[in-house]
From TrEMBL:
The lineage of its organism: Bacteria, Bacillati, Actinomycetota, Actinomycetes, Micromonosporales. Residues 42-173 form the AB hydrolase-1 domain. GO terms for biological process: glycerolipid catabolic process. This is Pimeloyl-ACP methyl ester carboxylesterase. It holds the Pfam family Abhydrolase_1.
Length: 290
């Protein structure tokens, strides 16, 4: 695989940055890897295992190099989906294969529904679709409280609550949003407020991503083959449960991937995964052989 070449793309309200790793002799359609708010750098190790494909990674709007030029606030999965559509169009159009993880999986589900025919196979890994869970009310209430904490007190307190929330195994307790906030220092986070409110997770994608409800009819009747992935080490966590919920709506069996929520992350990550093992599972999922 060649070194990635970086490109920019003008979009309404943002300038998108994406990278293309050209394959010498491609054995399949291009593979687009998408996260949110995870940027292109998070997929570097995974991309190395797909040297037989052209691999595209990108920074979603408001994250990394893809600066927003409109007023701050939440970005919707539909907006992210249209950005993915623009990247695919800039590459010459589909169909491509897509691997979407976390918020990227949510955005890719919106892409497939809004732009049918552009994606051959979508592997949606651990979409945190809290709105689909039986305990959606306390889960969404907790997420609103996290957002309000961030807006009121800043990044450290907001992220501390988010970490506590994502550490829950099983249903979210009804009283979770009313619990005292954890100490940010316990997670190595700053307690002081720097005044910024543009964090890609807490300030731009938290509520619209977790509150997203897929267009099941469009997904079921469209031409895209959809595989839902969950982590081997994340059973009971919200994103794992969200993946199971999406698979259930689609009437499919989920595929278990190695590791945690970021099981594809490389050795330089604060939470490294198993990129080689993850890539092997992803390759089978894309091929329909496992």
């Amino acid at each position: 695989m060649t070194q990635p070449k970086s490109y920019t793309l003008d979009a309404p309200g943002a300038v998108l940055h994406y990278d293309v790793r050209e394959a010498g002799a491609a054995a399949g359609p291009a593979l687009l890897m998408a996260g949110s708010p995870l940027t292109a750098s998070g997929f570097a190790s995974l991309a190395e295992h797909f040297g037989d494909r052209t691999v595209i990674t990108y920074d979603p709007r408001g994250a990394g190099r893809s600066e927003r030029v409109e007023a701050a606030g939440e970005v919707t999965p539909e907006q992210h989906a249209d950005d993915l559509h623009r990247v695919i169009a800039a590459l010459g159009g589909g169909p491509v294969d897509v691997f979407g993880s976390s918020g990227g999986a949510v955005n890719a589900l919106a892409l497939v529904a809004r732009h049918p025919g552009e994606v051959r196979t979508l592997v949606a890994h651990e979409p945190p679709t809290a709105a689909l869970l039986p305990d959606r009310e306390p889960a969404l209430a907790a997420l609103v409280d996290i957002r309000q904490t961030y807006e009121r007190d800043g990044f450290g307190p907001g992220m501390a609550k988010f970490i506590a929330f994502t550490s829950i195994h099983g249903e979210v307790p009804a009283e979770f949003a009313e619990q005292p906030p954890p100490d940010p220092a316990a997670f190595g986070l700053p307690s002081d407020d720097d005044g910024t409110r543009d964090d890609p997770l807490l300030g731009q994608n938290l509520l619209t991503c977790t509150g997203f409800v897929p267009d099941v009819a469009a997904l079921r009747t469209g031409p895209t083959r959809i595989v839902v992935g969950v982590g081997a080490q994340t059973e009971g966590e919200l994103a794992h449960r969200g993946g199971l919920a999406v698979a259930n709506l689609l009437g499919t069996a989920p595929v278990t991937f190695p590791g945690h929520h970021g099981g594809f992350l490389g050795p330089d990550s604060p939470m490294p995964g198993d990129p080689a093992g993850f890539a092997a599972t992803l390759r089978r999922a894309l091929a329909g052989t496992g």
